[in-house]
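Lab notebook, design round three. We kept the backbone fixed and only want residue identities now. Task for the bench partner: fill in a sequence for the structure below.
Input structure tokens:
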């Protein structure tokens, strides 16, 4: 599955009645999870490219 295909399927999941095949949905979600893991890894390593928050992402709030 290409990244573009995964994006399209994930965007479809955001609709009221997703039309994509359930197996393709699972594959797209798995690819999205792996992408987020790589983003998280890049941030932990201090790479500037990964420093900016994604649209809709919130900063972690500390529990004081």
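Proposed sequence:
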């Amino acid at each position: 599955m290409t990244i573009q295909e995964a994006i399209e399927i994930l965007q479809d999941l955001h609709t009221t009645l997703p039309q994509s095949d359930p197996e393709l949905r699972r594959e797209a979600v798995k690819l999205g999870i792996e992408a987020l893991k790589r983003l998280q890894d890049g941030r932990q390593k201090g790479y500037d490219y990964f420093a900016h928050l994604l649209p809709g992402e919130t900063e972690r709030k500390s529990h004081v």
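Keep this in mind before ordering anything: The chain has a mean pLDDT of 88.
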